[in-house]
Design goal:
Elements (H helix, E strand, L loop, with lengths): L1 H6 L3 H12 L4 H20 L6 H35 L2 H4 L4 H33 L7 H29 L1 H18 L5 H5 L17 H16 L7 H33 L8
Amino acid sequence: MKTRKLRGMTLPRALHAEALRLHRSPLVPLHLACALAAGLACGAYFSYAPWDTALGADASVQLLGAMMPLMAGIVCGLDADAEGEATGHAALLAAPSRGIALAARLAALWLMGTVALALAIGLLAGILSLVGRNPFEAGVWARAVAGTSFGSLPLYLLLYAVALRWGRNATIAAGAAGLMLALFSVGGLAHGLMTGTLTALGANAFSYLPVSWPVRLGSLSVELAIAAGAADVAGAAAGTGSALASAWSLCAAASILLAGAEALWIARFEPARRGD
């Protein structure tokens, strides 16, 4: 009977186990605190600031997207380090299927990040609505959440592998570097807000790095709505739509390739011994 249960390991069961494991994890309040801080701060500022509200919303989404490499680095680093200290990664490496166990873990962490993004952007939209300055319908905000979340998926795949191999500090450092590169991909923090341009639409060399995909996919969804209603950016709506489709396709292809490579890697992975 025990052997039959082990062989019957499925992704839903593994996800349930991850939910139980993370129930009392400090990562839950960390996500909540970050989401509340970001949503309230951006909403409070752009509810009275003299900037164009649509561009302010774009800048807020860009900030959240640019933060995702660092957030993923912190979350992956802390999670891998805590379990390594407690069990030597037994729940992952001693599982009947390491691939399923890792997929469930990454899915759980990624979903927590998605919920945090939804809360932050929902607070921003809600505050702007309360003061009568919400420039978009709900669908635009939802697409911004979806784009930022989907764009962050390759980051969790990459950074959890870094956390397992090189530890928490290296993972957080990689996430911090990713934050800077993500900002470069849109010309810097609030560059579009100050110049009145759709900065995510203008791809540069940094735009093709995985760390830039959350900021571009989230922001392009917002900029598509801005461009569709702005007469002074004729043709930008079509250009934004094309850029958005290309960015989604690139992220999807990279995620599939990374997931396959990580499944092969985790099957052979052995953690470094303490003191090595």
